[in-house]
Amino acid sequence: MEAPPGLALLLFFGTLLVLPQSSHGATRYYTFNVTMQNVTRLCTTRAIPTVNGKFPGPKIVTREGDRVVVKVVNNVKDNVTIHWHGVRQLRTGWSDGPAYVTQCPIRTGQSYVYNFTITGQRGTLLWHAHVSWMRATLYGPIVILPKRGVPYPFPVKPYKEVPIIFGEWFKTDPEAIIAQALKTGAGPNVSDAFTINGLPGPLYNCSSKDTFKLKVQPGKWYLLRLINAALNEDLFFSIANHTLTVVDVDAAYVKPFHADVVLITPGQTTNVLLRAEPDAGCPAATHLMLARPYSTGQPGTFDNTTVAAVLEYAPPGHIKSLPLLRPPLPTLNDTAFAANYSAKLRSLATPEYPANVPRGVDRSFFFTVGLGTNPCPANRTCQGPNGSMFTASMNNVSFGMPTTALLQAHYSNIAGVYATDFPAAPLEAFNYTGTPPNNTHVSNGTKVVELQYNTSVEVVLQGTSILGAESHPLHLHGFDFFVVGQGFGNYDSSKDPAKFNLVDPVQRNTVGVPAAGWVAIRFFADNPGVWFMHCHLEVHTSWGLKMAWVVNDGPLPEQKLMPPPADLPKC
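The chain above was modelled as a monomer; its predicted structure follows.
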């Protein structure tokens, strides 16, 4: 629903909002009622948290420059927050959503109004819950159209645009799964299936009727908005006998390139163009759309199954009566494919869509990311490595969540909630991707990095081999960043910067740190507030692979964090 632009004062569902004047764009209103809903998958019915009774949740549709206002009402027993993943939230950190970072959770029977403006973004993002593992079922697409009258920067006008959302399905409550894992120190049970638009598809038992079908017309172009909302798995995706053209990632245009297979980590989005062209020799075939994990972890630590949907040409036929065409997918641990695919992603870097990558660096950081252990508490039996408890860390600091929201502590100068001594580099260097050290214990603390407004920042994210080398999709709230370099092995500060791409690096909000490798990102700290940075594998976030950036206000009024809204939830 739209309202006239420039509306500064409105009464919205009983909540008075004071909004800054906007001379561009519309205001779009949504209500998210979080309720329990019985959903049956794989012949098992389970009551799951949903938004407005839908799984996946409703689609947010907006345009660049629009304001989005969403009232979230919590009608379930668990605490809830909603994160608008990838939205820049310029000066509106109170609407970012991560629990105990920018807000306290919305408790049962309470509500909170998120309001923010879409600035300089167009493409696809996603929304999801951001407390514990609630995002297993609380997620949905954000479709950001260009400003009115502004065309897509590619020559093809899509006949239809379709969100394709990947998820995971658990036969048991994910909240119980992670609670048990944190209690025992073991790894959590993996999901029972992957889903495409909430449906597991015909390759799972008792699931043939729960199959997403994309109905297409020969010769038409389709824009598929791919979203990985899975909890814990990077995914390969392909469509039998069809080539995709990648045109946008994380709501930023890229130089188009063709791909038979797309790699997408949790939290990432990818827009692809698809031309519907049935095979001349087999036009009535069933073309499967498949997704399965990319993982370098040990067997049993990830869901090693494949989800299928159907690309259906008219007139439709019965799946069992048509030839079945399956696309080939890379092997589960094909790190070379992952590196080559990532290297193809380049910003448009045109006058209309420039790549404003920092050429100089004010502050440089080197963060190790990986797993570790904590000792088993006294009088307990733990099921982690050698009787310890699994944990995860950045620079050997496992982040402890506070009980007061970090943004509230920053804004109100509340002492004792966090420390500003997060290390800029590991306190002890080691062969990060070689033989791991004997001592895998980590430290614990609620530590942040403090930045002055508009600081140019470079972060090298170095994967480690401690307890196994894995890819870590790192997500930064409040900013887009540029991926200026990546490689395997240990980062070499004397040689690797010479190979950085400062001309047209891809712009993202979530990047996969290569297994046993590194990635370098740059951004301007031009958004005041407190901004979470964490692994988007939910199990690693639960174990502490996270930190936060505190960006101080700039000197001008438009460089300062807005005051908190009156209905901000209390801890």
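The chain has a mean pLDDT of 93.
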